[in-house]
Amino acid sequence: MTTKLSFTLFLTLIVLLLPSSPEARRLPFLSKPSHPQNNIVSDNYTYQIRYFQQTLDHFSFHHLPTFPQRYLINTDHWLGPSPMAPIFLYCGNEGDIEWFALNTGFVWELAPLFGAMVIFPEHRYYGESMPYGSRDEAYKNASTLAYLTAEQALADYAVLITDLKRNLSAEACPVVLFGGSYGGMLAAWMRVKYPHIAIGALASSAPILQFDDIVPLDTFYNIVSNDFRRESTSCFDTIKKSWDVITSVGRKANGLDRLAKTFHLCGKLKSSDDLFNWLESAYSYLAMVDYPYPSEFLMPLPAYPIKEVCKKIDESAEGTNVLDRIFNGVSVYYNYTGQADCFDLDDDPHGMSGWDWQACTEMVMPMSSNKNSSMFPEWDYNYTSYAVDCWNEFGVIPRPTWITTEFGGHDYKSVFKNFGSNIIFSNGLLDPWSGGGVVENISDSVVALVTKKGAHHLDLRAATADDPDWLVDQRASEVKLIKGWIDNYYTTKKGVFNM
Amino acid sequence: MTTKLSFTLFLTLIVLLLPSSPEARRLPFLSKPSHPQNNIVSDNYTYQIRYFQQTLDHFSFHHLPTFPQRYLINTDHWLGPSPMAPIFLYCGNEGDIEWFALNTGFVWELAPLFGAMVIFPEHRYYGESMPYGSRDEAYKNASTLAYLTAEQALADYAVLITDLKRNLSAEACPVVLFGGSYGGMLAAWMRVKYPHIAIGALASSAPILQFDDIVPLDTFYNIVSNDFRRESTSCFDTIKKSWDVITSVGRKANGLDRLAKTFHLCGKLKSSDDLFNWLESAYSYLAMVDYPYPSEFLMPLPAYPIKEVCKKIDESAEGTNVLDRIFNGVSVYYNYTGQADCFDLDDDPHGMSGWDWQACTEMVMPMSSNKNSSMFPEWDYNYTSYAVDCWNEFGVIPRPTWITTEFGGHDYKSVFKNFGSNIIFSNGLLDPWSGGGVVENISDSVVALVTKKGAHHLDLRAATADDPDWLVDQRASEVKLIKGWIDNYYTTKKGVFNM
């Protein structure tokens, strides 16, 4: 206790003494969705848009304004309350809910098979679900952002679905949760925390173990690196070499201008670090969306885009220097359509990001990069500088051990063996987030579905004609398990009624 | 949704239009413990008193002061971290933790048998565990009281035990939860919400179903009434008759003075209602503490005190009128030692009660009294007048459906059948709170231990030479089940280590 208190005081002192600190590395989570890159529209996904007046703070009793939580709903295929037809609820994550709905075809395709209702509630503080009337007001300062937490979001979903079921006299209809990435974490946590609300959860690419020291801190960047090495050792080597080249060019007279020109930047390059971030992001996101067919999830991309990036890097004309090779490579990510003339390293440097707030409060996911196994520059995780950054950006000090206290993680195998049921953890091993995921079966009904060549929540995407067999099989397993949960629920219900 | 919003608006209007409302009946929970009636001191219960700097709001990120949470700890019998010796944690409820510790002998007696550490953390806003520096500041208004909720209390226990285990390198030591009454609810809920923190819970006399309309609203007062009828029909009849007599006497000239004299009140009687409350409290508490041996839990009392009360009522000299009989009866409760010369109906009319705040926010337990089955005056549950009272007293509007949304209850059999394990719900059927308790086995490891002649969390009290066999048996079953949880935990741990 004394230790904890002193450390907080110590940290506060550091924070006050060091107003300007070295930039701590924040994780490359799917923070992009708040600015959808493209509009996928499909006739399969029709829904009504509704709003629910939501309690801002579920866990204390201040007088606070409610806020309109947006949710998408489709009841076209729902068989209604009397046959206890299921309700599929996607746990909205850190972005506009329509964007997630359009990229989660699996749920829409499943609904008619199960006679299910589909609901996509939006996560508070994202999209249109803004407390205090507007995004500007909601994101004004630490006091207004205070209620942007995972626990509050889960309570939102619980309150919303309870109210909705009551209004439809559908209290007995089983709810199945879906979610990908952070949404997958929410789905798994919701199944554990609200077993009376939902009978099971498909948590896709949910890195619920990426906290504290549960998994090795270098796992994320090692997986990204291995994805590149797997395609080509020389590609991996070129990328690994490039950081020193950038640093040494950047230090020369007019070096930053030369780098800006090489990488076709629209504006000035202020430091090599900005270029590092831009490149690191591209590699990390490429690893996440290394899908087996052309996709437009974050960016328009070809099938297995890492293969294409490495082709460009490896197959540039002989004599092409390292930086030009790198530029050719990342252009596959940033400019696959060829429409960009130049690149902005940071679209909106002054906009506060909701995910950054979450990372600065409870979603502290420690990461490092290991020079022996990674193609990235080496760095260690430094909580102090991370916390200082958070203080400078938001005026908040993180609670780095809170998530594992609230949701567990350290001893997850023992816990799930004796408690809990009906969770699918699906992971693709190309996805760097799989390093923080559950990739082993734990019990009969807490199971891991792992695909060697899958990427970030690939299974939640709509079926395509190009789906490889292993993906078709994975989805079939998921359908079978979900059907089992629902059947078992009906059996139990009948048993209870007859008691 | 629209309905909900409008109802809140409607309620707010009512609240504003009706500053003075008829007093809604608040439940007779164990709100007394904040003023211990007596000091039981036992050599068996030695402990250190420690304080933990606790986060005031676990679920949002305001800048709030921490507060010192008091906890009692005894490690005398603990076998330490390397044999993974267990930790017994009593979930402190609405009162001074020392008082609960002294009245929960079972846990102290168990500790040496299991080589266990014992911890009694105090519930926030009770005893010495006061936010904002003092009770006066903590209870100042709705803003300072805002964080007095069950969810925050559970998070306190989770944070405290996690920190304590880390400091002792005891992360692998299994935690078993204990709790009685509201503390039993907390223990059961904690097992469900924090399965990674505790491997099982003994929830004694925990009315987790006394919410919404899960159980019939008249169940509590029916059980109290049956406890009296069971002893003597004429006793039941006399009590049932007495309300009309009080009302009619009270209406006469100097009637209130006559009542005050009959009941030996120290001060003036302002209305018959106050006398009703005083008598109803006595009967309800008598039902709770109808223990098979003399006890001093709430008041010094003889064995099976209801039998004694009824004796006094029935066996008063022939010709004794109804009110004198009633007075003779309740004197067993209020004045068993014979030391009181007169009675104060309300010890502290201006003191805000923590439990009243909880009842006015989330712990809304609807109750009514049915003229056909109850010995009490008839009344219906009226949420509106309940809410108006809460507004007038605390400036807060309750959230009557929140507890079942957060913790479940409506479909608890189906839920526990498929999810969760290692909970004992123990109940004595004399206890009126057993009406809101789980009294049927649900699965192999979510079990109900019910005693016909038990009262309010009798099993948690220290063993006495007067314990009836059924009580000895009940405690033996509890020990066996707890031992099973711990053994199973060790087996699982070994399995996981060997994987």
TrEMBL record, chains A, B:
One of its GO terms (cellular component) is vacuole. GO terms for biological process: proteolysis. SUPFAM superfamilies: alpha/beta-Hydrolases (SSF53474). Transmembrane segments: none annotated. Residues 1-24 form the signal peptide. InterPro entries: AB_hydrolase_fold (IPR029058), Peptidase_S28 (IPR008758), Ser_carbopepase_S28_SKS (IPR042269). GO terms for molecular function: dipeptidyl-peptidase activity; serine-type exopeptidase activity. Keywords: Glycoprotein, Hydrolase, Protease, Signal. It comes from the Eukaryota. It holds the Pfam family Peptidase_S28. PANTHER family: LYSOSOMAL PRO-X CARBOXYPEPTIDASE, PROTEASE S28 PRO-X CARBOXYPEPTIDASE-RELATED. Belongs to the peptidase S28 family. This is Lysosomal Pro-X carboxypeptidase.
